[in-house]
Amino acid sequence: xxxxxxxxxxxxxxxxxxxxxxxxxxxxxxxxxxxxxxxxxxxxxxxxxxxxxxxxxxxxxxxxxxxxxxxxxxxxxxxxxxxxxxxxxxxxxxxxxxxxxxxxxxxxxxxxxxxxxxxxxxxxxxxxxxxxxxxxxxxxxxxxxxxxxxxxxxxxxxxxxxxxxxxxxxxxxxxxxxxxxxxxxxxxxxxxxxxxxxxxxxxxxxxxxxxxxxxxxxxxxxxxxxxxxxxxxxxxxxxxxxxxxxxxxxxxxxxxxxxxxxxxxxxxxxxxxxxxxxxxxxxxxxxxxxxxxxxxxxxxxxxxxxxxxxxxxxxxxxxxxxxxxxxxxxxxxxxxxxxxxxxxxxxxxxxxxxxxxxxxxxxxxxxxxxxxxxxxxxxxxxxxxxxxxxxxxxxxxxxxxxxxxxxxxxxxxxxxxxxxxxxxxxxxxxxxxxxxxxxxxxxxxxxxxxxxxxxxxxxxxxxxxxxxxxxxxxxxxxxxxxxxxxxxxxxxxxxxxxxxxxxxxxxxxxxxxxxxxxxxxxxxxxxxxxxxxxxxxxxxxxxxxxxxxxxxxxxxxxxxxxxxxxxxxxxxxxxxxxxxxxxxxxxxxxxxxxxxxxxxxxxxxxxxxxxxxxxxxxxxxxxxxxxxxxxxxxxxxxxxxxxxxxxxxxxxxxxxxxxxxxxxxxxxxxxxxxxxxxxxxxxxxxxxxxxxxxxxxxxxxxxxxxxxxxxxxxxxxxxxxxxxxxxxxxxxxxxxxxxxxxxxxxxxxxxxxxxxxxxxxxxxxxxxxxxxxxxxxxxxxxxxxxxxxxxxxxxxxxxxxxxxxxxxxxxxxxxxxxxxxxxxxxxxxxxxxxxxxxxxxxxxxxxxxxxxxxxxxxxxxxxxxxxxxxxxxxxxxxxxxxxxxxxxxxxxxxxxxxxxxxxxxxxxxxxxxxxxxxxxxxxxxxxxxxxxxxxxxxxxxx
Length: 942
Fold this sequence. Notes:
Elements: E1 3-8, H1 11-21, E2 25-29, E3 36-37, H2 45-48, E4 57-58, E5 64-65, E6 67-68, H3 74-85, E7 87-92, H4 98-111, E8 117-119, H5 127-135, H6 142-169, H7 180-196, E9 201-211, E10 221-228, E11 231-232, H8 247-251, H9 259-270, E12 275-287, H10 295-306, H11 310-322, H12 338-352, H13 397-412, E13 418-433, E14 436-451, E15 484-496, H14 505-515, H15 523-532, E16 536-539, E17 542-545, H16 547-559, H17 566-580, H18 586-595, H19 603-608, H20 615-618, E18 620-622, E19 627-632, E20 635-640, E21 646-647, E22 653-654, E23 656-658, H21 671-680, E24 686-690, E25 697-703, E26 706-711, E27 727-729, H22 741-748, E28 752-756, E29 763-769, E30 772-777, E31 780-783, H23 789-792, H24 795-803, E32 817-821, E33 828-834, E34 837-841, E35 846-848, H25 860-873, H26 897-905, H27 909-941
Parallel strand pairs: 1-2, 1-7, 7-8
Antiparallel strand pairs: 3-6, 4-5, 9-10, 9-15, 10-11, 10-14, 12-13, 12-15, 13-14, 16-17, 18-19, 19-20, 20-23, 21-22, 24-25, 25-26, 26-27, 28-29, 29-30, 30-31, 32-33, 33-34, 34-35
């Protein structure tokens, strides 16, 4: 009798399930999807010119996709087919969401089983859950498959139609995506708000109030000035982003306290007027626990409390799930099963006391716009939760911290409210001002928790918000109305309003969920994608857009406005939900999206009617009338029109190019900072001296790509066609203002010949390259330790360096970690540090450790998972050499005459004349300096 073949997605999941199913079941992993939409280049020759040729999808025939088993999955498919031959049943146990359902469908399509097939689903991997899943199998849910397929086709159409526009008009290798583009736009929009933000200055006054010596409670307290003569004193939240009081604050009669008045009032308070308690107010305070985790809230909280990226969080959660410690980690439902509720309540009562558990269980419902198929929150697995202390030695540090967070949140969600009271005191004082008296009122609030409830287990983190600094919790003494108080240490404090905080991974995920963009299975991928594409980088926890992201978003907004509209993107997600529920036909929906409907022109209609896109305008961000930022081929730079600009032979002003510092965030490039950078550029090229061999002038200058030296041709010398003056970049330790002639000549003469190899006779040279300083002998190269070594290394030293093995071929490199033998290769598994970062290897297969994982957290199970995934992908494909372009096609690059004319009209005649005069003066000065340098060199020679 044959065994039952069970197919899951990952080796870890296979091992865990296999332990519960027993010897009658053979559990294997597909390692994710076994096939995907064909790339147009992968299509059979007869299909490349047909309807599938552009997208791998026939848009004319119901959007039929053409799937292929990729080369890196053919071995996996062969192994699965071999395993199926010996089985009498096939059990598909992939995840229960759309992606998992699609994997199961593709397995059926490719394997074509002739034995009974069972679809087995579960949301936690425990013995009880697996037994229940075995007893309650179901048919494949084709609606879920349709939803996944629709999303995949949708992304292919969107990316393949819009990305080429970005390549042509912004930069090569960029990509557009229906969700990633919306996410990038959110980050760029926030940076635009920060760029437009004008800070407002406002002042506050704090004072220390002390009860009299005979008071029952003599504890002093801090209070803040809130009203002057009955008018509210403005705080940070009363100002808008233009630096003015908001209309709401003006309507309420709020007054902005300036520094002069604040100092006067603080001095008057210091003179010792008496204050009195005018009112006391006490209100009950109640805090409810947060709901159990969904995918979104787990990523947010892990970011706030553990500083995990979304990718790290999902990597650890995946491992916890596949090893049977938590329920399925992709869900937007905060609901707990009856068994989970009982488990949480019983653990809360046992650990914190029966009084911390409410009489009735708490019930949570989802608030997100969309809903996916997994219908329980992320919680510890099983009917009895494993306490974190019980798993201390079995989990990695990263997994343990995340499990601890999930366990605490789940238990706290079923605990009683925290209760207490909030007391607010208002203190009045008459302050001498302008030969009169001003009535000033101070307030202070303090909350006292009398019953901590769920706070004994867990307290939810918070994102940064503007105005939080104005709020403070004060410990108040026992006071009564009209009680006299002394005033001590009054302080006038200056404040400035802050711009809207940048998104973090947590707050971006939260915003995407609020807008209905993305789903639990995609949040992590969205954030990772926009970072990997170079649209966004991280400064600490903040997400900062690149300048290239500004150009991409601008192009999409101006020419694909409907496709990057937040509401439209959210509606697409809702429509996919409808398809998943079986309420909408996938083909009809794709037809409306691509070809258009009464409400939307369709992707094809938008692309076909793009019109002319001005690439220069798209890649130009205006700073002020003189300076713009340009996204160029080699990165962003400033384009400056000022008195230092030159004028060409047609009388047109030529802008100067000025570098901007690496890592400068867009909101830091204010007009003042831009002018500072422009003014810092050297006004003229510095003549270093005359080359001792050629007699030509050698200058040092700052260029667009950094400082360099250049050998200038003589005034009467004309270089051969195609030949340019010799140039050489300065080392990082050199300054164009101080570099001497000997150094400049040595740089120009690079590469330096160190000597000849005594064995082969080949010359050995030292030189600088794209990846730093190196030695070269024939085709053999070795990295040098520093740029200075280019000049200092001698022949014996060079021979010693060349005798060492190349970095990637070192045999004796120490391992960071070592494990037992890999079950596939039978060779020991090691973690090593390579040229491009840490990786896992068994001596045959190398697998890079993903960004979300750290070396410390890599376990044996994770290591062999990475190796299995790498083997399944197969060797990397070699890039084909680009085809040479025919010279005749160069004529197509000519620009229309009308554009040149328009450019000429844009020149300011006054600015052009001033710049021409400045250029002439600069030329005369340079000639004078050159003559002086020549005289000095001649005198030195004598």
